[in-house]
Design brief:
alpha/beta, Rossmann fold, four-stranded antiparallel sheet, 19% strand
């Protein structure tokens, strides 16, 4: 999961960036509302964490602008504004959740996952493809009921594909979703991770359409070669 954090407080911003990274969530951080609006419009984030008291453009205006452009990604407000009127205004303006500071990183990650499920129309938190099951909350993957040990990068890649079953994603799209700003990896890192996942989960766990991209099959296409 790749998240945009729009937060001007350096201590909170750093804590969220580091804390969510430890939970396997890539966080790109900007410190003013104008830049946050530009980045949310132009980059393929899975969700936005939005403070309200921001320089250059207030967070509430950023929220209204993003929803006015029909951007469907979850937007979670994180703020110290605890008045009922502020909470109502934020939710009515299109926030998927309204989280008061201070908060725990585990709860913030859980709320992100919940918002993603709601946006995709899923109630079950477990992602499934055939006999494969991925548990985003516990970071556990099972194949035919047996636990499979994955690296953090392998898990993140598999989760990204399993959130979009049957939908091929190109190498560029996968790297955009998995990597934060300034993060560099070897040129063949994606292929290495795909190879490792297939070795651990089976060659049919991740399929490829040459020139199009990789995908995890839906249950009904699990036997397609």
């Amino acid at each position: 999961m790749r998240v945009l954090l729009v937060e001007d407080d350096p201590l909170i911003g750093q804590a969220v960036r580091v804390g969510l990274a430890r939970l396997g969530i890539t966080v790109d951080w900007v410190r003013d509302g104008e830049l946050g609006l530009q980045c949310a419009r132009s980059e393929p984030f899975d969700a936005v964490l939005l403070d309200l008291g921001l320089p250059k453009r207030d967070g509430m205006q950023v929220l209204r602008d993003l929803r006015g452009q029909a951007l469907a990604m979850p937007i979670l407000v994180i703020t110290a504004r605890d008045a009922l009127a502020d909470r109502v205004a934020g939710l009515d303006a299109g926030a998927d959740d309204y989280i008061l500071k201070p908060f725990e990183m585990d709860e913030l990650a859980a709320r992100l996952r919940s918002a993603l499920r709601s946006r995709s129309g899923r109630a079950d938190p477990v992602l499934r493809s055939g006999s494969l099951a991925l548990h985003p909350d516990t970071k556990m993957v099972t194949k035919e009921g047996a636990v499979v040990v994955l690296s953090a990068r392998e898990f993140a890649l598999l989760e990204l594909l399993m959130r979009r079953p049957g939908m091929p994603m190109s190498r560029a799209q996968l790297e955009e979703r998995l990597l934060g700003w300034g993060e560099e990896v070897a040129s063949n890192a994606l292929e290495v991770n795909i190879h490792n996942l297939r070795r651990k989960l089976g060659v049919d766990s991740i399929l490829n359409i040459r020139g199009v991209g990789y995908f995890v099959p839906r249950d009904e296409t699990a036997c397609i070669r």
